[in-house]
């Protein structure tokens, strides 16, 4: 059984490799056919002559393949597919990235996939509360670019900032606001971006990440779930893997390089478990600010945002009569509050399903949809069945803040 499985996997990998090779050959001949000779030659050189030695079979070309896909999409969805969209920003080509071997070019292409080319469309004013965090992020990223004459000498820009706190409090939302509002190249990095199963590739990916950030400067590197890549060294049961140690060391070395340079590269990190972070990394993250659970005014603002007195979805009106000041919800994170609001809005919707299901397809008498008003009593009932996700952890965050806070 194992042998059969291995053979099947190998065959699937061969088919995938052949498909990618065929696509390059189709592109090469399409470029030649359209008169883009220089581009075709460049493609052939990058593949070491791997595409020039093949011809496209009769009655096959890239345009025909695309037309057949459009026809298939129209038959299935009754509309043609949208194939392209205008990019919101253009990156410098990797060909200008000096000292790049073939292997490093491949790694650079992998990291480049995590660059935000399109805005997440999150503004500072969209984030309710978190004023201290917004101020510090602006000081670190926005103002040094806007007022460079102020940030010299002892006032040189911060190079690293850690956002820590319970899940769902807005750490990633702050990062998206940076990507939207700041005119920097934004690298959205997670463990899957820089951890590789191949020996030596993880530290190479880290090195390429920081070199690319310098190349595309001004840049922001967002390290989400930092504890997954920078946990304390030497504390793993049974000893830490050598590759993991090398990757962490490389990340620390690159952070040191930023601190000693004038490059406009900033590291923004987020962690739900700051007590698991390596102390050497904490030293390199000069600013450490807690993103705490929302205050009472912030909670009220969130509830009124998600459940206003009148909203309309799909032509159906949803009305609410809520006494926002009595709803409380102390200990709930922003994502918890959104979940409660969604569940409260769902309660009147559930009551109309029977009427909708009894309506037969083809009947002209479609029942009018009128939802009941969501009341304070409904909301409080939902709260009793939806518990906060991180209330019991706040004491631990507060204790860690007292020891390591740096604002």
UniProtKB/TrEMBL annotation:
Record EC number: 5.6.1.1
SMART domains membership: AAA
Reaction equations catalysed: n ATP + n H2O + a microtubule = n ADP + n phosphate + (n+1) alpha/beta tubulin heterodimers
Gene Ontology terms: cellular component: cytoplasm; microtubule; spindle pole
GO molecular function per UniProt: ATP binding; ATP hydrolysis activity; microtubule binding; microtubule severing ATPase activity
EC class (word): isomerase
Main location, first listed in the record: cytoplasm
Xref: SUPFAM superfamilies: P-loop containing nucleoside triphosphate hydrolases
One GO process term, biological-process aspect: microtubule severing
Keywords on record: ATP-binding, Cytoplasm, Cytoskeleton, Isomerase, Microtubule, Nucleotide-binding
InterPro entries, alphabetized: AAA+_ATPase, AAA_lid_3, ATPase_AAA_core, Katanin_p60_AL2, LisH, MT-severing_AAA_ATPase, P-loop_NTPase
Domain AAA+ ATPase intervals: 157-295
Localization per record: Cytoplasm, Cytoskeleton, Spindle pole; Cytoplasm, Cytoskeleton; Cytoplasm; Cytoplasm, Cytoskeleton, Spindle
Binding-site residues, ATP: 165-172
Similarity section: Belongs to the AAA ATPase family. Katanin p60 subunit A1 subfamily. A-like 2 sub-subfamily.
Stated role: Severs microtubules in vitro in an ATP-dependent manner. This activity may promote rapid reorganization of cellular microtubule arrays.
Protein name from the UniProt record: Katanin p60 ATPase-containing subunit A-like 2
Organism the protein comes from: Sander lucioperca (Pike-perch)
